[in-house]
Specification:
By secondary structure, the chain is an alpha+beta fold. The protein has three domains: about 60 residues, Orthogonal Bundle (Arc Repressor Mutant, subunit A), CATH 1.10.10; about 210 residues, BirA Bifunctional Protein, domain 2 (2-Layer Sandwich), CATH 3.30.930; about 50 residues, SH3 type barrels (Roll). The strands form three sheets. It has a seven-stranded mixed β-sheet with strand order 3-4-5-9-8-7-6, sandwiched between helices. A five-stranded antiparallel β-sheet has the order 13-12-11-10-14, with no helix packed on it. A two-stranded antiparallel ribbon has the order 1-2. α6 links the parallel β3 and β4. α1 packs across α3 and α2 crosses α3. The protein is elongated, with a radius of gyration of 22 Å. The N and C termini lie far apart (about 50 Å). The structure holds biotin. The site of biotin has 19 residues, from α6, β5, β8 and β9.
């Protein structure tokens, strides 16, 4: 249920002209006093709202916030009701998984301004400070076998690249499998978690968890990530980007992914190949992902039709197709 304050904020963002108190109270189905109280709260939260006796209210400035009202302004009204926005949570994936268990429908979205226990791939943590990033989980119910999860995560990385282009007009790249890069630095990670029907082996629910570094500064990253991670802001001269627009663009692109799955395979494969910069590079793979086992060196050749990475290891005449996992790519993430 979206609050009066959030619904009025969406109205204000969408309107380039003053909205009278009367028309607002009619549209929202609440009293004029309720509209006044929403205005007062929004002002306290940092929104600039001009009020003029005969004309009503006009939004004059807006902070970079993640709220249902901010995001709702860029989505169809009916879409917002399945979007839960939280100020802080341990992990949006865990929260969304819980909703899935309780029967939430496909398309359910959980977004938080901050995560205290953000999860990364391979048991790592994902740094999720408040006020700078997008931490979003999307519930999909694809009724597909688990062997296709990796493919869906590749589609999700395409959705992220498209959303950033749609929203900010900026280009990104993909490092196989699903790291999204800007200027060869990681700005987004994706963690998909599935719950599987034991008997049939099909996916009951799939949580696509996406973390995007939007407005972080260099000092926000831990020392060990300095050669790897960056933010959209850092890569664009410190400019601050509005996160709610990108969150909405992401939801639209994930909705398109869900309605295109699996029939739009050819389109997503073509897009993935055009974004992915791993082929034609020297790579290293490790038996254990901690990187403490001996590296196998080789050449990344291509992305196969099922989104696997075709690799030729040094000293071998044959090629190997990696379906999932991680590879180090020479020239990326400090690997020389
Ligand atoms: C990685 O690159 O290791 C994947 C990081 C995925 C982070 C996102 S943030 C939203 C969602 N909630 C989590 O706890 N993790 C994912």
């Amino acid at each position: 249920m979206t609050s009066v304050k959030d619904r009025f904020l969406s109205m204000l963002i969408k309107s380039s002209d003053y909205i009278s108190g009367e028309s607002a109270s009619k549209a929202l189905g609440v009293s004029r006093a309720a509209v006044n109280s929403a205005v007062m709260t929004l002002r306290k939260e940092g929104y600039g709202i001009d009020s003029s006796t005969n004309r009503g209210y006009l939004l004059t400035s807006r902070p970079d916030r993640i709220s249902q009202g901010d995001i709702g302004a860029f989505l169809p009204d009916e879409r917002v009701s399945d979007v839960t926005v939280l100020p802080v949570v341990d992990s949006t994936n865990t929260y969304c998984k819980d909703l899935a268990r309780k029967g939430a429908p496909e398309g359910t979205v959980v977004i938080s301004d901050c995560q205290t226990g953000g999860k990364g791939r391979r048991g790592r943590s994902f740094s999720s400070p408040a006020g700078v990033g997008i931490y979003l989980s999307y519930l999909m119910r694809p009724s597909t076998g688990i062997d296709r999860i990796s493919e869906i995560t590749c589609w999700a990385s395409v959705a992220v690249c498209k959303a950033i282009k749609d929203c900010y007009g900026l280009d990104t790249q993909i490092k196989w499998v699903n790291d999204v890069l800007m200027n060869r630095m990681k700005i987004c990670g994706i963690l998909t978690e599935a719950s599987v029907e034991a008997e049939s082996g099909t996916i009951d629910s799939l949580i696509i968890g996406i973390g995007i570094n939007v407005n972080e500064k260099r000092s926000d990253f831990a020392e060990e990530l300095k050669d790897i991670a960056s933010s959209i802001s850092i890569e664009n001269g410190g400019k601050i980007f509005m996160r709610s627009e990108l969150a909405a663009a992401l939801i639209k692109n994930l909705d398109a992914l869900v309605s295109g799955w699996p029939d739009h395979h050819a389109d997503y494969l073509e897009a993935y190949r055009s974004f992915c910069i791993t082929p034609n590079n020297r790579i290293a793979t490790y038996a254990t992902m901690a990187g403490d086992s001996e590296a196998r060196m080789g050449e990344a050749l291509s992305i196969t039709d099922d989104f696997s990475l075709e690799v030729r290891y040094d000293g071998s005449d044959e090629t190997t197709c990696l379906k999932s996992g991680e590879v180090s790519v020479r020239g990326l993430y400090g690997y020389t």
